[in-house]
């Protein structure tokens, strides 16, 4: 089918839901349709069990794809999932995204799965405070905190189960975004370059791990510029397929 709209599928970081991108809905160009992807066990999919295995979660997310052209954006764990989706789509002969936009995550070849080994509540809370992306009201509310910790622990198990497999680079543009005060090594961000045979860009922003909030205006401007480069490609024919499952409205 032919389309004049680009679907931007956004994947959340560990412990978060699709709502982390809700405020972007009206901040992107009108020809971009924001599609926040909800993972199992949160938001609209609260009744489903939390995923704990990377490959199984990627396989679930790949069962259906959006109609027409799309791009993938993910922050932190979401970036790892976005890359995994693109790789699996290629392996299955599906329609690749027009671009991969990855944020706040080392390249897959630089991930350290042992970093996400089983942690107790105190260690999880320390991570939440260190990264600074969790409102104090959540940390002080026992029920909300319990829900957040359970989700974060499951997502850490997803990350711990990831194993990097060598494969040819993807034939698509990769735009990597990073925070200047994040604790991810520069080399680990630059290693995203090895994941593509196409154009690569690494862009730095003010802030720590959640620079996408701390420097949100600059991040959205950068995404807008990156997506604009895809605009000539979105009118080409794409095979029709089922809509993306369980996305936030």
From TrEMBL:
InterPro entries: AB_hydrolase_fold, TEII, Thioesterase. Transmembrane segments: none annotated. Pfam families: Thioesterase. Residues 8-224 form the Thioesterase domain. GO terms for biological process: lipid biosynthetic process. Belongs to the thioesterase family. This is Thioesterase.
